[in-house]
Specification:
This protein is an all-alpha fold. It has one domain. 79% of the residues lie in helices and 0% in strands. The protein is built from six helices and no strands. It has helices spanning 8-36, 40-43, 47-72, 75-95, 98-111, 114-121. Helix 1 (8-36) runs antiparallel to helix 3 and helix 4 (75-95) runs antiparallel to helix 5 (98-111). The longest helix has 29 residues, at 8-36. The radius of gyration is 18 Å and the shape is elongated.
Amino acid sequence: MGKVKRPLGVSIIAILQIIGAILPVIIVIAIPIYLYNIKMEYLLNDPVIKLSLIYVIIMIPILILLAIGLLKGMNGARIITIILHFISIITALISFNIISIFISFIIIYYLTRPHVKDFFYGLQSGILY
């Protein structure tokens, strides 16, 4: 039995998580300053912006570590990613965000497929990659 090759979908999910970690920084800080010429001290006085920044600061390392874990085949990263996407589905249901529900459902479905689980458990499933 050789080492199981990483499925392409796992790599794509990891890359999307890295993009998902970096993109909020641009949205929360760079766009308001650039588009509206808002000074940073005014921006940081807004409570919504403050909460968004706290969320971004917390989520950036989490998403990057999960992405690295997915790429390395760490099952804990797969499980936590599934949990975060379940939470995403709940919040998307509240806000009626159909696209987010669909994407999270696909990611959960994919990460629970036998050949993907085999990668995280280090097993050969017999499926050609």
